Amino acid sequence: MDVKDAFTGQALSLDRNVKVDLLQFDSTMVSSAVCREKRDQGSGVRQMIATFSVPLQKDPRFLLRVSAAGYATKYVPVTLFWKKRFTESSKEIFLRRTTASDEVCQLGEVKVTATKIKFYSKGDTLVYNADAFQLQEGSMLDGLISQLPGAELKPDGQILVNGKKVESLLLNGRNFFKNDNTVLLDNLPAYMVHRVEVYNQESETSKLLGHKVDEGQFVMDIKLKRQYSIGWIGNTEWGYGTEKRYLGRLFALRFTPQSRLSVYGNLNNVNDRRKPDGNGGWGDFDPSGGLTATKRGGLDYSIYDKRNRFQLEGDVNASYTDTDNPWGGTSTDFLSSGDVYNTVSSRQQTSSLNLSTRHNWKYTNQTTHNSASLSPWFSYSHNDYHSNYRNGTFSVKPLDNYAEVLDSLFSPEWTTTVRNLIRRNGQQARGNSDGRDVGASYWTFIKIPQSRDGFSIDGHVQYVLSKSGEFNHFIYNHLEQEAMQTDFRNRYNYFHQQNTSVQARLKYFWHWTRDIYLNPSYTLQFKRSVGNHSLYRLEFLPESEGQELGWLPSQMESLLQALDADNSNESTLNNWRHKLTLDWQWNKYVKDENFRTLSSWNVTVRPDFVYETNRFDYRSANDPQHLTPGYWLPQFYFQLKRGTPSLRHRLDFDLSLITSAPSVTSLLRRTDTADPLHITVGNPDLKRKLDGNVSFNYRADQWLQRKERQLYGNVGWHITHNALAASYTYNRQTGVTTTQTVNVDGNWNAWMNLNFTLPLDHKHRLMFTTASSVSFYHTVDYASSREQEHPVRTTTRATLTSETLRLNYRYKSVNLGLTGAATYNHQASTLEGYASPNTWNVRYGLHAVVDLPWHLQLSSDLTMFTRRGYETASMNRDDLVWNARLSKSLWKNQFTLMVDAWDILGNLSNVNAGMNSRSMWEYYTNVIPRYAMFRLVYRLNRQPKKK
Fold this sequence. Notes:
Blueprint: E1 2-5, E2 19-23, E3 29-34, E4 36-39, E5 46-49, E6 61-68, E7 71-79, E8 92-95, E9 119-122, E10 125-129, H1 141-145, E11 151-153, E12 159-161, E13 164-165, E14 168-171, E15 174-175, H2 181-187, E16 193-201, H3 204-209, E17 217-224, E18 231-241, E19 246-256, E20 259-268, E21 291-304, E22 310-333, E23 340-364, E24 371-394, H4 402-409, E25 421-447, E26 454-480, E27 483-511, E28 516-518, E29 521-537, H5 556-561, E30 569-581, E31 584-591, E32 597-619, E33 625-627, E34 630-632, E35 635-643, E36 649-660, E37 671-672, E38 678-681, E39 689-700, H6 702-705, E40 710-721, E41 723-731, E42 736-744, E43 747-759, E44 766-785, E45 792-811, E46 814-829, E47 838-852, E48 856-868, E49 878-890, E50 895-902, E51 911-915, E52 919-925, E53 931-942
Parallel strand pairs: 1-8, 14-17, 38-42, 41-44
Antiparallel strand pairs: 2-3, 2-6, 4-5, 6-7, 9-10, 10-16, 11-12, 12-13, 14-15, 16-17, 18-19, 18-53, 19-20, 20-21, 21-22, 22-23, 22-52, 23-24, 24-25, 25-26, 26-27, 27-28, 27-29, 28-31, 29-30, 30-32, 31-32, 32-33, 32-34, 32-35, 35-36, 36-39, 37-38, 39-40, 40-43, 41-42, 43-44, 44-45, 45-46, 46-47, ...
C-alpha cells in the first residue's frame, strides 16, 4: 500500500512516523508495520510502503488502521486473497491533516564544515556532485560531463560511463529531446546542475509489476538545483570574432511540479561540437566534418499529473546546415604482388534541412496497474550537394606533394606518358535527396488481478520514403596496349525506395516463485521494401555533347534511349520474421531491516527461436530473378550478476550467440558495373553468420566509494563463424577492382580495459585518473591482383594499445591539471611484402581555471600533439595548440563578458590518418582557422514569489 497526503497527492515523509495496523473486523490485531520509503530513480517520486505477512484466515475481510503524526487516523476496509503462489496487493490511502498547529522547535547554532565529494555510489546509482567540479565560465552541460571521472563524451553527443553506452539522457528523471543528446549538452548551463546520476532505469513494466523483469535502460539523469525546480529559466549568448566567426544561442525552460516547457535556438559557424573538453584535450573531433554553419531550434514539452496517472510529452526540432568539406592526401593499398599508391583530393559542399517531431501519450490506472501508451513520430529531410573528386593511382609512390601530382594529372596539357601511372579518374557531381519517416509505436500492459502476473502487447507501424537524383560527369584513363584509353560518362542516377514495417509482440510475465520469473513472448514482424534504381548514360544521346552538368532531355522518349538496362532494376522484398523467446530469471536479494540491499544474485537465461522467410522479386532487362530464402536463426543469451556482501564489488558475466542471415540482395546472380572502377558480383552461396561474445565486467562500489575512488575494468572476446568479407581482385593494368562478398572463418578480437581514479591527499584536492586499454584484432579476408587466378587468403593481426593519465589539483579558486595520452598501433599480415607499420599518437599538456579578483576568471589549455611512424614525413610532426578565455561576471552574475582566443599559435592539426587490413591513409582536411571572439551571456531566472 502507498500512504499519501490527501491534498498534495504526495507520499508522506518518513518523519511523520507512518504506521499501518491490520485488524480483523472485531478490531483484533493481526499484524502491524511501519512504512518505509521507496523512491523512483527516474522521476524521483516517493512512496510510503507497508508490507505484511498474513497467515491464511477463514474470513478474508480486514480493516487497515493508518496513522501518522499531524494527520487524522483513517480506517480502510480491504479484502485479501490467498493463492498457491506468492502474491502482493497494493492500495493508495489518502490522509488528511489535523488542525493542530505544528510545534516550533528552535535549534541551537551548529557549524558544519564539509568537503565537496566528486562522486559516490548510492545503491545501484553512481552520483556525481556537480559543484565539486570547477568549470570555465559560461560552460554548458557538455563541459561538465567531459570532466566526470569514468565518463567519455563523443562528438556526436554519445556518452559512455565506465565503457558502457548511455542509452538515454534525462532531465530530472524524464526524457528531454529523446533522440538528440546534443540539445541538452549544448544548451543547459552547467551552473544549474545539482548532481548527475547514472543508473539502470526501471522499465514501466517492472514498476507496474513491482519487481524487475528486464534490465531497463542505462541512463544519465541530470538533476537540477532546487531553486530551478519551478519558474522560468533562460539564458542567451551572442558572439562575433575574427575570420567572420559568429555564434548565437537562446535557451528557455519553464518548470512546475507537473509540467515542463523548453525552447532553444542556436546558430554558429565554429563547428560548435568541437571545443576544448576541460581536460587539456580538443575532444574526438572527426576531421571529415569540414567547416559547418548550423542553424537549429526546437521545443520540448512534458505534462503529467501529481498521481502519475497520465503523461504527455514530445518535441519538435528543425535544423539547417551548410558544410564545406575539402580534403586530400595519399593512401596505400596492400596487395600481394606489390602495393599501389593513390593521390586523391575531394571537395563536397552540402546543405541539409531536417524536420522532426515525436510525441508520447501514456495512461496508468493506479488501482489496477493497467497502462497504455502511444508514440507517433514524423521526420523529413532534404539534402543538396555539389562535389568534385580527383584521383591518381601509381605502381610507385610519387615523390611530389599530392596536390602537385593531381594538378599535373588533370591539367589541360597533361601528358599521357606519366611514369608508373596505373589510372587517373575524376568526377564532378551534383544531386539532392528527400526522405520521410512516419510511424507510431504502441504499448499496452494488463495486470492480472490478485497476482503479480501480467501481460503486454507492443509493437510499431512505420513507413519510410526516400528518393534521390544525381548527375555526374565521370572520366577514367588507363594505359592498355601502349595506348591511353579514355572512358567518359555523363550519368544520371535515380533512386526511389519505399519501406513499410509492422511489428507486434505478445509477452506474458509469470511470477513463478518469489525469486524466479518466466517471461515468454512471441513477436511477429513484416517488412515490405519496394525499390527502383534507374541509371541513364546521357552521353549516348548526341544532343548531350557540350551540355552542362545537370542537363536532361526534354522528352521522356529520349531519356529512355539512354537507359543503362544492365545496371537498372526494380525490386520488391517481402520479409516475415517469427520470434519465440523464453526469458528465465532468478533474482535473489539479501536486505536489511530497512529493506536496503546487502548482496544480490541475478541470473538470466534467454533462448530465442527465430524463423525468417523472404520473397524477393528482382526485375531487370536481362536477368529477372525470384528468390525465396528461409532461415532458422537461433539466438542465446546468458547473464550472471553478483553483488558481493555490502555491495563492495559488482561482477557481471555475459555470454551471447547470435545467428544472422545474409542480405537478400547479395544473393543475386548478377554483376554490377555501374561504377566501372569498382565492379561487384553477387554470391548465391552465402551462409548464415554466427557471432559469439563473452565479456566480464568488474566495478568497485562500496569498497572504494568512501575514499572517493573508482575502479572499473572489463575483458571480452568476440568470434565470428562464416563472417562476411569482401573478396576482391585488383587489375594492376586497368586499376579496376572486382569484389564479391564471401564467408570466411578465423575473424576474432579480444580486449581489456581498466580505469582507476583516486585522490592522492587526505583532503582530496589532488586527483589522479588512469585509463588503460588493449585490443587485439585477428582479421581474415581474400585478395589478389590480376597475376593470380583466385584471391588468396590473407590474415592481418593488429594490436591497439592506449593509455591516458590525468592529474588534477583543485584548491579554493584554482583548478590545475596535467594530461598525457598515448596510442600505439601495430599491424602484421601474411600478405607478401607487408610493411608492418607501427604508429604513435601522443598528446600531453596542461590546463587551468583560475578565479581572479573583480569577478574575473581566466581559463587556458596548452597541449602538444605528436605523431610518429607514418609514411609521409610531413605527417610525423609536433603541433602545439593553445587556447584561452578571459571572462567577467556583472550584475550579480546575470551578465558575463568573455573573450575567447582559440588556436593562438595557429597549429591546429588538420590530419586524418589511419589504417586497416587492406590500406592505410593520410589525409589533410580543412579546419577552423585561429580566431578571437567576443561573447556576451545573459542569464534569466524568474521564480514565483513566496507566500
